[in-house]
Amino acid sequence: TDALVIRNLRVRVEGKEILKGVNLTLPKGEVHAIMGPNGTGKSTLAYTLMGHPGYEVVEGEVWFKGQNILELEPDERAHLGIFLAFQYPVAIPGVTVANFLRTALNAQRRARDPEDKGIPIAEFRKLLKEKMALLNMDPSFGGRYLNDGFSGGEKKRAEILQMAVLQPEIAILDETDSGLDIDALRIVAQGVNALRGPNLGVLVITHYQRILNYIQPDVVHVMMDGRIVETGGPDLALHLEEKGYSWVREKLEGDS
Ligand code: ADP
Ligand code: MG
Ligand code: MG
């Protein structure tokens, strides 16, 4: 089966090594969560996977479909089937959510087949309607201007809808700790739960300990000091929720 495979990833930010050898395999069809204390490099991993220029890869590879995606431009990663949630966070004046999504879908189709003429409007409307129904979204949302005065929750809704329309094979969602916006997290969780299936692998990076109230990950990873130091099932998240991270730290110190 296809998987996103991160091997010994070391990344420097502003001259400082933040990721110190991350290893992680995310197979299609599974939902994985990365948890960990603040400042341990979770967002650095997300930015590196999206190809943000400020993140200098010192060593390592990230394989998907036989390619090291670290050698690809961000849009090439997207066209390969990798979705990075915060890739299009801008407000575009006068562009509706529906038009934006149709443009994004057509760009993806053309990247895969230069002869592609774009999805016919009627077919796109049907697709959008189906996906919005699947995600329990009000159809009027498609007519809103993109990111124009969107709340945090509405931005998330647009992001999840984009994911539903583009149908990626791997999705990486970094739920930032800005205000621990529970509404936004709930929207993401409902979206992931609705879209999860054998053709989609999801990596949810969370700063929110009680993620299990919202998403049931198949696998939970703990990141600490730039490395994945524990991997387990949902019970690991429960344990972290109860006991915090100190036991992981102690165990690490005991090992070294
Ligand atoms: P997390 O998401 O786990 O809270 P981050 O990846 O955001 O952690 O940050 C890891 C470390 O890298 C922190 O010490 C942070 O200060 C530093 N860092 C991250 N991004 C930048 C950046 N763009 N410029 C400078 N330092 C950064
Ligand atoms: Mg942080
Ligand atoms: Mg972060």
UniProtKB/TrEMBL annotation:
Gene3D superfamilies, alphabetized: P-loop containing nucleotide triphosphate hydrolases
InterPro entries, per the entry: AAA+_ATPase (IPR003593), ABC_transporter-like_ATP-bd (IPR003439), ABC_transporter-like_CS (IPR017871), FeS-cluster_ATPase_SufC (IPR010230), P-loop_NTPase (IPR027417)
Domain of life: Bacteria
A family per Pfam: ABC_tran
SMART domains registered for this protein in UniProt: AAA
Keywords: ATP-binding, Nucleotide-binding
ABC transporter domain mapped to chain residues: 4-250
GO molecular function: ATP binding; ATP hydrolysis activity
Family: Belongs to the ABC transporter superfamily. Ycf16 family.
Record protein name field: Cysteine desulfurase
Species this protein is from: Thermanaerothrix daxensis
